[in-house]
Structures are given as C-alpha cells and as structure tokens.
Amino acid sequence: MPSDDDHDPSAPLAELNQATKIYRGGMLAKNATVALDHVSLTIRGDTPQVVAVVGESGSGKSTLASLLLGFISPTEGTVRFQGRDIASLRGADLGRFRREVQAVFQDPFSVFNPFYKVDHVLTVPIQKFRLARSTAQRQELMVTALEAVGLRPDETLGRYPHQLSGGQRQRVIVARALMLKPKLIIADEPVSMVDASLRATILESLRTVNRTLKVPILYITHDLGTAYHVSDHIVVMYRGSIVEAGAVETVIESPKHPYTRLLIDSIPWPDPKQPWGEHRATAQATLEVPEHHPGCRFADRCAFAEQHCLESPPPHYLTAPAHSARCYLYRDHPEVSDEAFRTLLTLPP
Ligand SMILES: Nc1ncnc2c1ncn2[C@@H]1O[C@H](COP(=O)(O)OP(=O)(O)O)[C@@H](O)[C@H]1O
Ligand code: SF4
Ligand SMILES: [Mg+2]
Fold first, then answer.
1. Which residue numbers in the chain have pLDDT < 70?
2. How far is residue 162's CA from residue 88's CA, in Å, rounded to a whole number?
3. Is the CB of 35 under 6 A from ligand 1?
4. pTM (2 decimals)?
5. Phi, psi at residue 156, to the nearest 5°?
C-alpha cells in the first residue's frame, strides 16, 4: 500500500471514496445539511471521458465539485488525486494539484476585472505558475490556448471583457484552464448563465479539449439535455446520492430509476428554449411516507414506493453491463459493490 506521501502511478486520476459532506448551520445538529451522502466516484486519466453529473438544484453537485477541487474537505470518507488524499497535500504538491485540476464556473464575467483587457486573465496564471520564459513564449501560449477553444486570438486579445460575448468570455476561461495543461477540468454549470444560442460553442470547446488534448472533464449540470450531447457517462444525483449511473446513451434511452425517468419525461426535448432544470419533476406518490425514515430518499416522490423501500436505503443494482440504479425495483439484479460501482463508471462507453 502506498503511503500518502507517495504518488501512486496505478491509482485513478481522481476519486471520491464514500465521501460525505455535512454542512452545519450552527451549533445545533438539527441545522445540519447532508449535502453529499457516501458518494463514490472515479475519474480515470488513461481513458479520458466527459462524465456528466446531473441533478436538480440542491442535489449536491457543487459540493462534489468543491471536494474534488480541494476547496472543502469531506466530513467522512476521502477524496484522492493520483492516489493521494487531497487533504494531505502541502507546498509544491499542493501547487501542482492547483495547476493540474482546473475549474470552469458558472459566471464567466465574475472572473474578469472590467478595467483590464482580456489578456490579464491569461497572463496572471502564466506568471503565477511560471509557464513562460519570454514575452514571445507567453504570447505563443495564449494564442495556442485561444485557438484550441475556437477563438481567434486577434479578435480576443487586446479587448476588454465587455467587448466579448458571454460565450467568448467563457471560452477564454476554458483557454486559461488549458494553458495550465490540466489533468482534469471540472466545469460546474459552465453554460447556465450564457445565452442559449451560445451554449453549444462552449460545450463544443470542452468536448474538443477532451478529445484532442485527452483531458477528462467532469461536466456538472442541471440540464440533462446538454449532458446527453457532450458526455460519455452520466451520473444522476438526488439529494446527495448517486441514484443512477452508466453510459450516457443507455441511461437516457433506457432510464431505470424512477427519478431519472421523471427527469427525462419532464424534458421538453424538442424545444431548446425551455430548459429542463426549471421544472421540478413531480409524480404522484402512492405511499404514506413519514418525514424521517432510513430508506430510499426518493420515496416521498415515488409512484412505485412500497413499504420495504422505507426500511433501508437501496444499494446499486446492475441493470445492464455498464448501468446501475439504486432502486429496489431492480432487486432481482446483482448488487453492485462500492468497488465495482467505481469500475463501472470508468468503462469505455
Ligand atoms: N456552504 C454551505 N453551507 C450550508 N449549506 C450548504 C452550503 N453549500 C451548499 N449547501 C447545501 O447543501 C446542499 C447541496 O448544495 P449544492 O452542492 O450547492 O447543490 P447543487 O450544486 O446541486 O445545487 C443544498 O441543500 C445546499 O443548500
Ligand atoms: S427504492 Fe422504492 S421508493 Fe426508492 S425509487 Fe425505487 S421504488 Fe421508488
Ligand atoms: Mg451548484
């Protein structure tokens, strides 16, 4: 077993192992929010994929992103990068981690200082991480990164942030992430604040980065429609837990968990102007469900709930070779152990 001080080359790139995050509102335990509940997830570096994490607002997606970025630590469980517990990283190792795991967030405007030209957001990391030795080298780095995300450097550099569209600004942020040669990009709702007409180009640039530069991407979204278009695998979250996971086509075309089915039914697929996330998927619950019970957290909204669903949380069941659902409707299928669940998501789609 490697100790936390060794870099383990055979370890997956990033992984959450039974990670739980509880936010405490104050001294009183009743104010605690379980934002993430024993979540395990592996992201491989050797078969770089786009893994989408989808779920309604409040399902724990940004908490998962913040854990992987090392912004917060888990209340229980571990978060590892290249086999090492992120919480143990210090000094130069922490610096390298900060460079190798890059984030793209929702609001591209907040990253820019309106008084500086766009170049500024690119030159700052170049200086900070000493990526260039000369002005020419610095220029070349910026130009290559901008071109990789489909921007024309001559139309981008030298401009002020307000002179670019929201879509162009967000692509500058993707370019900035790229300059650092990241091993992982975590994009948390990168298109939810840009105009619908510009979303495709940003997502396309992420997809290109994934394909050509072989960088795995965790694409976090409340929008199942875009997840379907850009990702290889999909993880569906509900109230802090993964309820369904698998290859994107299988999950979207043949959803198993009642929650995923509701989500898919509530997408007005042919009309891209109506984003799915603004509806709350609802179904007629059939069972009288007490407020507190140890069972399935979806039971109060589930049309298929039965008494046994309230007794203990369902495990993941393997419903197809690379597809699992955490629901007792599939209890005649094999149960998926935590270890097997992590492998399942890393299979090539
Ligand atoms: N810093 C925080 N303090 C307290 N509660 C939080 C904090 N951040 C998130 N939460 C709560 O944790 C849950 C999950 O939030 P979040 O991870 O932001 O979900 P999502 O990104 O899916 O909308 C929500 O109930 C949210 O209110
Ligand atoms: S375990 Fe029971 S309550 Fe939960 S989603 Fe499945 S059928 Fe519904
Ligand atoms: Mg969020």
1. 1-7, 26-30, 268-285, 346-349
2. 40
3. yes
4. 0.90
5. -115, -50
Q: Is 309 helix (H, G, I), strand (E, B) or coil?
A: helix
Q: Are 191 and 202 in contact (CB under 8 A)?
A: yes
| Domain edges within the chain | 14-282+314-344
**Is-contact 220 235, C-beta < 8 A?**
no
As residues whose CB is below 5 A from the ion ligand 3, the structure lists: 61-62
Q: Which residues lie across from 233 on neighbouring strands?
A: 51, 247
* Cα gap 89→206, rounded to integer Å: 28
Q: 189 C-alpha to center of ligand 1: Å?
A: 14
Distance 62 CA to ligand 3 centre (A): 4
Task: Give the contacts of 221 (CB within 8 A, at least 6 positions apart).
Answer: 52, 53, 54, 61, 189, 191, 192, 227, 277
Q: Which residues line ligand 2 (CB under 6 A)?
A: 258, 296, 298-299, 302, 304-305, 309, 314, 327-329
pLDDT tens column, 125-148: 999 999 999 999 999 999 999 998
The amino acid at 262: L
Q: Residue 165's CB: how many other CB atoms inside 10 A? A: 14
| Phi, psi for 224 (deg, rounded to 5) | -60, -30
Query: What is the token pair recorded at 275?
Result: 């984003």
What's the CATH fold of domain 14-282+314-344?
Rossmann fold (3.40.50)
Give the closest ligand to the alpha carbon of residue 236: 1
Nearest to 50 by CA among 168, 198, 203, 179: 203
How far is residue 298's CA from residue 40's CA, in Å, rounded to a whole number? Answer: 19
Q: In the numeric block, which tokens belong to residue 114?
A: 């309106």
283: its two tokens: 């179904």
Contact 60, 239 (CB under 8 A): yes
| In 180-305, alpha helices (H) | 196-213, 224-230, 248-253, 258-265
